[in-house]
Write a structure and sequence with these properties.
Strand content: 5-15%
Helix content: 40-55%
Distance between the termini: 56 Å
CATH architecture of one domain: Alpha Horseshoe
CATH class of one domain: Mainly Alpha
Largest sheet: 2 strands, antiparallel
Number of helices: 21
Strand order of the largest sheet: 1-3
Radius of gyration: 25 Å
Shape: globular
Length: about 550
């Protein structure tokens, strides 16, 4: 039988060889490989994989703060009134359903990034090394593509849970329907990709000025810390053994701190992180790059701007600040109350206009809240006057995705989970020491009080034990990273989001409470899978949506 099948196989191979001419491409036929012929092409394709990180508008605005800040206890939606951007209003108040436009556009933008990274990984791997596409350049470009694919999937899994896991370009209509992968499978892919990225990328100091903003070895190591910590928290929240991944988080944090010691440092002034002059500064590990855009593309959608909408979205609606914005993302009084006395980080993050600066209270107060987000609004100076842009709806200010203080606090958390309280205290103190400066404020752990979310925000005097050290780290993450779109994800991964959001709602004004629907545990930790994706792809919806 084996001899018979061998003869048949030989005959089929011979027939295939004789008829190759029948399958030759006709004239004007383009193949994807034909495009990948030079180092410049490889660079351009990887550049294209970065672009969806910049996207913020497609039928609605979906900047990161519409989720990371506004869903949490850190801010209220803002805008002209409650009807302004109804998709954000529904998300903020736990009323969103699966046809929510922010839910859809955010989801699709990440998959555009995945698709572009997949193409780069497939085709650059096949390219021959030459005098232009050197082996180090080829490795670096592949490392960037691995990093970006992992980063896009990280953004997806922490918001939607398990999602379709696409790791190759889709060239056929028959392949576009993909099943949902499990959270475990998505995190496994993220960690594998980040490992591949870390082995191929170079340090920031080895990059030329023209490559500033690209993913680096330091960024991959920081993300290996962060992704391992997130996955460990997911396992712990689901009653599973998380020890291995907490240990991996601590290991990668230690690797970063050792390998990148000369690459990054905390800015001497906290506020310097959030100025145009401070972009890609000593503390910045990875940030989304924007540039000034002198013309409006309002309503054009994804891919039509190199500037950010965030600045005009965040700026006050008052004409008293020299340039009128749209007034979104109002920091809550609850967040303001979290800051300790004398903490200068508050004024670098939040500004409350004076009565003289309020021109139209109906539009500038959102549900009684007048507070403004300073970060990325380019409000500067003692009077918080705004910096004029070349076009008021296209700002050049970058979005910091990872900075050193974030890494220090993530590492402190991982160390604490691994029972290394000394290391956790050390890196918590580094962040507090920078905020303290030379003043007699912000004492070292445990000599201060933090709000207790489980006790109606009553101030809790910290004690020198593991539970209170975790409370201190959580407090520090809130005030250090306030309005940088981390808060919602922190609450969810810590497993305390239901407790905190319920306590927050009870602490709010009657006017705000009238709009908030109850947080449903087991549902609202995730966003719904967009109904269009459920219908088109036949994938399963998240629970209770």
């Amino acid at each position: 039988m084996k001899a018979k099948y061998s003869l048949i196989l030989l005959a089929l191979l011979s027939l295939s060889s004789c008829n190759d001419w029948l399958r030759e491409d006709g004239p004007m036929t383009n193949r994807v490989e034909d495009y990948f012929t030079s180092a410049e092409t490889a660079i351009q394709v990887v550049n294209a994989a970065y672009v969806p990180l910049m996207w913020e508008y497609q039928n609605t605005y979906y900047s990161e703060f519409f989720i990371g800040d506004i869903l949490s206890d850190d801010s209220l939606k803002g805008g002209q009134n409650t009807k302004d951007m109804s998709a954000s209003y529904d998300l903020e108040n736990f009323r969103a359903i699966s046809n929510n436009e922010i839910v859809l556009q955010y989801y699709r933008a990440q998959y555009q990034g995945v698709a572009r990274a997949n193409l780069a990984l497939e085709q650059i791997a096949k390219m021959e090394v030459d005098e232009d596409l050197t082996q180090p350049l080829k490795d670096r470009l592949l490392g960037e593509a691995y990093f970006l694919r992992a980063y896009y999937y990280f953004k997806l899994v922490r918001l939607y849970g398990g999602v379709p896991l696409v790791t190759e370009p889709i060239y056929s209509a028959g392949n576009w329907k993909q099943p949902r992968a499990s959270v475990d499978e998505v995190y496994t892919r993220i960690l594998d990709d980040l490992g591949s990225a870390e082995s191929k990328l170079i340090n920031r100091s080895a990059m030329g000025a023209e490559d500033l903003g690209r993913a680096t070895k330091g960024a991959a190591q920081a993300m290996l810390l962060k992704a391992n910590l997130y996955y460990a928290d997911y396992l712990r929240n689901n009653g599973r053994d998380a020890g291995q991944y907490y240990e991996q988080a601590k290991r990668w944090g230690g690797t970063f701190l050792q390998d990148q010691a000369s690459e990054y440092s905390l800015c001497s002034s906290y506020a310097d992180n959030f100025t145009l002059e401070g972009e890609n500064g000593p503390e910045s590990i990875f940030e989304v790059q924007y540039m000034s855009e002198g013309m409006s593309d309002y309503g054009e959608g994804n891919g039509f701007s190199r500037g950010t909408f965030a600045t005009i979205l965040l700026r006050s609606r008052s004409s008293a600040f020299s340039a009128v914005g749209w007034g979104f993302n109002h920091p809550t009084q609850n967040l303001i109350d979290e800051y300790e006395a004398g903490d200068h980080r508050l004024s670098a993050c939040i500004y409350t206009p004076s009565a003289e600066q309020v021109v139209n209270e109906v539009e500038e107060f959102y549900l009684g809240n007048p507070n403004l987000c300073v970060k990325r609004s380019i409000m500067q100076g003692a009077d918080y006057m705004v910096l004029e842009d070349s076009h008021d709806s296209r700002s050049p200010i970058n979005m910091i995705a990872i900075r050193l203080a974030d890494v220090y606090l993530l590492y402190a958390e991982a160390a604490l989970r691994c029972a290394d309280q000394a290391e956790a205290k050390n890196y918590l103190e580094k962040v507090r020491a920078r905020a303290r400066g030379s003043e007699d404020i912000l004492p070292a752990f445990p000599n201060y009080k933090v709000p207790d979310y489980s006790n109606a925000y009553a101030l809790h005097q910290l004690q020198d034990n593991a539970d209170d050290l975790m409370m201190a780290i959580r407090h520090e993450r809130r005030v250090e990273l306030a309005m940088e779109s981390h808060r919602w994800y922190d609450l969810c991964r810590w497993g305390i989001v239901a407790e905190v959001m319920t306590a927050y709602a009870e602490s709010e004004s009657e006017e705000v409470r009238a709009h908030i629907s109850p947080f449903v545990k087991g549902k609202h930790e995730l966003l719904p899978i967009p109904v269009e994706e459920v219908r088109l792809g036949g994938i399963e919806q998240n629970p209770n949506y």
